[in-house]
Amino acid sequence: MVEFDVIELDSDQPFCLDKTLSCGQAPRWHQENGWWYGVVADSAFKVRQDGDKLHYDGVGSDFISRYFCLDFDLWKVYDRLKDDVYAKRAMQENYGLRILNQDAWECMVFQMTVNRIRTKSSTDRITRISSRLGKKLNIDGKEYFTFPKPADIVNAGLPALKSCNISYFADNIMIAANKVLENPLWENEVNNADYDAAVSILSGFKGIKHRVAEWILLFAFKRYEAFPVDAHIRKIFEENYLKGHYFGTDTDDKFDEAVKDAASRKFGDYRGYALEYLFNTYRSQ
Fold first, then answer.
1. How would you classify residue 167: left for phi > 0, otherwise alpha for psi between -120 and 50, otherwise beta?
2. What is residue 144's predicted lDDT score, i.e. its pLDDT?
3. Cα–Cα distances in angstroms (integers) from residue 148 to residues 177, 182, 242, 243, 283, in the given order
4. What is the spatial distance between Cα 39 and Cα 129, in angstroms, rounded to a whole number?
5. Spatial distance between the Cα atoms of 257 and 247, rounded to a whole number of angstroms
6. How many CA atoms are closer than 13 Å to the CA of 5, on its beta-carbon side?
7. Which of 40, 91, 183, 211 is deepest in the core (most CB within 10 A)?
8. pTM for the whole thing?
9. Which domains does the chain have, with CATH numbers?
10. Which of 217, 228, 129 is nearest to 173 (CA)?
11. What is the mean pLDDT of each run of 10 residues along the chain (285 residues)?
12. Rounded to whole angstroms, how far apart are CA atoms 101 and 141?
């Protein structure tokens, strides 16, 4: 019988691998024969949960712990969500879902190009770019590709990137790759900046609007106070938290501001986690 590496999960900490990887927060994960297969940074690996154990192959234990944020106390989030009827329901339905610690460069490009409905596809833009410009990896006889680093994209050139059939995103990605190469400390700058400054740094990349910058902060920089408001979140708050509110003619801006204010009051520094839980419940209806 083949043996795999194992991490013993903290039995006092909620963790659900299926909820975490099926919610669409990160690209290129799929489940097969009880295992989740994915590519993160330079590694293709597989992982499955058996009670309080994570079995995995292809990466080390430090990688698993860091990627799944196993050292984060999820009860801090639940303590903040438990008094809100809608968030409590979402918490119960998505118990153990954790926000991943994604690679910043790949997350940035993913958020620049992602379908906001978070549809699952084996031919999404990240997959197409990786299969053309990434490095080939294998696990269990299956072929995967890394997401190309900025230097790989620049060296391949714009025509090669455009051949990935990603429309106008190719130009924005090429500009971003060059900008990252010019400033290799960009991640440190984002990490060390306050929230508004971090949003400003990311919004300086062509193709990254304020809301997209907030998604990147949430998923790649563990800024759990990030609360990007899109059409889905507007609908959730309109139906559950802001019924009957009138915002005049300038509806979108005023409504989004009201959504952010309500989220800040209700969920504090963990409103990004609340967003992910509320969204996943809304998505599954």
1. left
2. 95
3. 10, 17, 43, 45, 30
4. 13
5. 10
6. 14
7. 91
8. 0.93
9. 1-71 (3.30.310.40), 102-221 (1.10.340.30), 231-284 (no CATH)
10. 129
11. 84 97 93 95 95 96 97 97 95 97 96 66 81 95 95 97 94 98 97 97 95 97 96 90 69 83 96 96 84
12. 27
3-state secondary structure string across the chain? CCCCEEEECCCCCCCCHHHHHHCCCCCCCEEECCEEEEEECCEEEEEEEECCEEEEECCCHHHHHHHCCCCCCCHHHHHHHCCCHHHHHHHHHCCCCCCCCCCHHHHHHHHHHCCCCCCCCCCCHHHHHHHHHCCEEEECCEEEECCCCHHHHHHHCHHHHHCCCCCCHHHHHHHHHHHHHHCCCHHHHHHHCCHHHHHHHHHCCCCCCHHHHHHHHHHHCCCCCCCCCCHHHHHHHHHHCCCCCCCCCCHHHHHHHHHHHHHHHHHHHHHHHHHHHHHHHHHHC
Q: Which amino acid is at 188?
A: N
The amino acid at residue 23 is: C
- Are 202 and 216 contacting, i.e. CB atoms less than 8 angstroms apart? yes
